[in-house]
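Predict the assembly for these two chains.
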Amino acid sequence: MKTIAIAAPGAMGAAVGGVLAQHGARVIAALSQRSVISQQRAQAAKIVDVDEKTLCEADIILSILPPESALSWAQHMAPLLQSAPKKPLYVDCNAISPETLKQVARVIEHTGTPFADAAIIGLPPGEHNPQGPRFWFSGPHAAQLATLSDWGLRVRVMDAENGAASALKMAYAGINKGITLLTSAMLINASRVGAADALREEMQESQQALLQRMAKATPDMLPKAWRWAAEMDEIASLNQGELATDRLYQALGEICRQLAEDRQHDQQFSTLLAAFFQPEADKAG
Amino acid sequence: MKTIAIAAPGAMGAAVGGVLAQHGARVIAALSQRSVISQQRAQAAKIVDVDEKTLCEADIILSILPPESALSWAQHMAPLLQSAPKKPLYVDCNAISPETLKQVARVIEHTGTPFADAAIIGLPPGEHNPQGPRFWFSGPHAAQLATLSDWGLRVRVMDAENGAASALKMAYAGINKGITLLTSAMLINASRVGAADALREEMQESQQALLQRMAKATPDMLPKAWRWAAEMDEIASLNQGELATDRLYQALGEICRQLAEDRQHDQQFSTLLAAFFQPEADKAG
């Protein structure tokens, strides 16, 4: 029986663990330090509580964390991995830049533990995404992870080094979230000078697919703008200075912070965006 | 008979003049200083050559110029308009920011000539756009321009001040061109670390409409990157500092310049983009 350790059973980690367990894997996590909600979620997903040292006995460790914890958790686990007699394959699945990924890889590989890079693209498996997200793996040990498809995951193996899966995730998020932010900023600018109705009508005529995409993506983005800011900062570091992508994503990160601030205070930006997408509601009110 | 003056019979101006002439308007332009190509194009469109002073006798002057000429042409025409006994309606149709538009408006209105703001959205009328582009008008004199629909133009009148049509044009271009540039930059970044095939496959699965849009828009953009750079700089000035849109479009302008430079020199960026959209051609070559 295959044993897979999950760090940590958040919304994505628990749902992924649940799929693996349903398909017959033994799924473990260290839950003693976790919130009651996380413990209940893990229990519901048939994830077995173990101590941290036991995580190292798994065949595979999937690190699925808030991006800012990816490196610190690797550093925390390093001594345990160092002293483990049989090393698991450590897979970093987090939304971090290739630079950060390489730091994590160095920490883990230094303990003699094999390492792979992964990108999870899509929503957690469940009601809103029955097929589940796609797992992309890169690095010298990526090929072994193809077997995870036997345990219910949608797996793609990249013929590329560590860092490539992280770059994929960054580029994909950079495109999709970047479009939402850039478009929202332009809608706000147009609305402030009385051009909202015209821009909506023009887009209805000549950019219908994009307008529909925005009508869904913009309201979804606003409550997450703070979290997106950190992600834009990370994407800014994807580029090593030859293209101005760094400045582009720094500006998008700044726009995230401005939208988040606005939402907590006078809401002028969020009001303009709401009126753009719901002109009738606006006129009725 | 309605007389409409066009400055200048470039690709857009001549095609618009041709539509007006076909619908029975008398269309005039000052051609003596223009290239032989422009003169031939004007002649083919049934545009009548007059001297610059005679332009002021038109009912309407449509300024359709490269954006950087919008203000200087207004300044050049101001003394002639000043001394004209009957003033035409001067319509600035150029892709300029609301700030620049207001400078043009001040120059023209100072001569006692009524002024309107316009945005032309879409390709010139002709083979590739049989319906023709849409003309959006704003400002206190915009309503009079509704009659241009009798002369074959697709007209929309905005209930908004001078500057609003310019802002509409900027926002629309900012969204469409911004998406193309941002996405191209991310495709280049992903391709440089071996993630191109994965990103294409992922987008084919989850972002098909966007991928199709990019496959057309990116190659179309590359030869125009120099011209787009100036437009991005203009869009950057749309914002007056409350949102970081200025920094966002400054970065996009910089990316335009980098793509244009690359295309003239080592072509590493354009080669990566070509390979992204034509992977089979790349492998065959």
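The radius of gyration of chain B is 21 Å. Residues 3-161 of chain B form a domain with the Rossmann fold fold (CATH 3.40.50.720).
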